[in-house]
Every structure is written in structure tokens, then in C-alpha cells.
Amino acid sequence: xxxxxxxxxxxxxxxxxxxxxxxxxxxxxxxxxxxxxxxxxxxxxxxxxxxxxxxxxxxxxxxxxxxxxxxxxxxxxxxxxxxxxxxxxxxxxxxxxxxxxxxxxxxxxxxxxxxxxxxxxxxxxxxxxxxxxxxxxxxxxxxxxxxxxxxxxxxxxxxxxxxxxxxxxxxxxxxxxxxxxxxxxxxxxxxxxxxxxxxxxxxxxxxxxxxxxxxxxxxxxxxxxxxxxxxxxx
Length: 234
Known about the structure:
mainly beta
């Protein structure tokens, strides 16, 4: 093992420089969003409780999933548009009368945003025998473009408030919510409520970090192989 000085290998133990393929962060950004009046989509059973409710209180919220779509920006080479769609699981308490105990329900809230980041240029096509193909003899002919990878880091949002309101015309156009997200609340949600129907609207505080990463070849110094020094406990 190489000698360690101040937590790092000493330069005297430098052996060679090797080329590695690793992800380099070309650009990143962080954001604090206050998401006001996000509509909560509910399953039919939970929606029936909201129709009889007097008030509602938000208990917590968590990030279930983030759908990411990356597209190059026209006339601005090297920059990419990252379309992000956040899906939140919202836990609510519903009060149907002044002196009754609240009942718990769960719903889905959706938030979309777009960021533009620099991801460098990479017009090469990548071929590999590790690409997963249905036909074994076609593996060598599978290719992928060298698009940058968008990585989103987000902590569970801060649950600020919740209220019962009415559906407006502006909420008529609702995108499809994936079934894997709806499964968290027990089934499909109701997205086609008529105008004027009661619905739950929440306000969340979200902190997120977005990174645009591309695989590059880098030359790094090698000191020695990393061998664990800690013994495994029986």
C-alpha cells in the first residue's frame, strides 16, 4: 500500500497516468421554488371525501419521481433544454365536521419546469456490445447518440398549506399521470373533473439541483490499487 500523508497518497508513490471514462459535470444550477396552488389529483374514493369536507390540512409531501427530457437548443450549439416534471405524493387530513376526527387521504401533485444548461458538443455515435438488444446477433449494431445526461437532485418539499377550492377552466388541460405514480395511492386518479367541482390545492417549497453530465475521457494519476483495510465483522 502507498504511504499516506495528510489523508492523500504522496507524490513519491505515483505509478502511472491512466485514461478513464467518467461523467463530467459541464453545467449545473440550483433553484428554490415556491409552488403555489398545485392541484392534488385524487382517486375516486378520496375525491368523494373532499366533496363532503369542510376543511383540509396537509401533513407531508415527498418526491415520487421526476421525468426528464433533454433536447438541444436550436441556434445555440452546446446548450440543451431540460424539461422536468415532478410528481409529489401529498398526505392530507380531511375534516368532514367541526368535531369529527380527520381521515387521511393521499393524492398526486404535478409540477413542470424547464432549465437551459451548457452540455458541450458531442455529435459522435456510440457503438458497444454492452447495449441491451432483443436479438443477440444485433448487439454489435446497436448505437446511441452521445447526448448529455440530465441528473436531478431534490429533497422532499416543505408542506406549507392546503385548501379546498373549485376547478377552473384553466385546469381542464391535464397531462397523463403515469400508472407507476398512480399506484402509490391505489389506482388511477380523476383528471377530468368538471368546472366548479371541489378540489384540493397545496403550496409546497421545493429545493432542487440540476446537472448536465457527459461521459469524457480523462487522464488521472494512479498510486496503487485500493484494498480495504477494515476487517469484516462476523
